[in-house]
Amino acid sequence: MSAEHDALRLALGGYVLGTLPPAEAERVRVHLAECADCRAEHARLAGLPALLATVTEAEASGQTVPTADEELADRLVARAAESAQGSPLERPAVPAAPAAPAVPEVSAGGVLERLLQRAAARHRRRVRLQLAGAAASLTFVAAAVGGTWLAAVGSVSSQANPPGPTAPTASRTFSGSDSATGVSASVKVWPSSWGSVLQVSARGAPAGITCRLQAVGPGGVRTDGATWRAGQYPRGTTVPGAVAMSPGAIDHFEILAGDGRKLVTVQA
Predict the structure, then answer these.
(1) Domain housing 257
(2) For 14-66, how does the pLDDT look when each residue is reduced to its tens digit (9 = 90+)?
(3) Residues 93 and 224 placed together within one structural domain of the fold
(4) Distance (Å, rounded) from C-alpha 150 to C-alpha 141?
């Protein structure tokens, strides 16, 4: 593979977190349309914004350190191990999906670590704190196989998950629909010290397709906020997400199909 390809591959982490300059983000977007390997890598990383929402504000600022029994990485690894052994997880029933190939374990010098190191080196302390939260979740993402696809693309929950460390905080809900696609959606947004916490509900997309929510900001800058597989879920089911973009900077949201087709626009 060329040096240019490797550079674009390493930029995927910043692309997912929305921290790339617009020109570089556009190059990555064009490359993803042409490279199946990088699209697969992007799919594995797409859940990181949602996982960032599990890091408390106090933990991110260094004011507190999680206790041993609440350590994020330990919790995620434990859940991944349960899934690998076939133990049931407490989560809503999800539609059957084709088994996904196992995601290889990431070594200390693996592409994900290099990716995060590069992004961390380029941005200021606030973004580095976000990446630290994402790094704590990488073991779980790397361990996800087959039936644990929800971990890699953002857990689907039947309960609201507002940002605990700052609750109660003011939230706003935005809704939209598209008569051509038949898809409707609402996005609930909470402010956070590092961006925005999201809660997404959507219906009307063909069952089984992968859906991706993007927040669109000034100058058309796009940030992936959540990814999930469409299907028949219990009433009230929501998808948690997060973006490194303040609520006031978000112009609108778009939900895209896996092939890039726009399903619905939600104005903010």
Answers:
(1) 164-267
(2) 787 777 787 888 888 888 888 888 888 877 777 666 555 555 555 555 555 54
(3) no
(4) 10
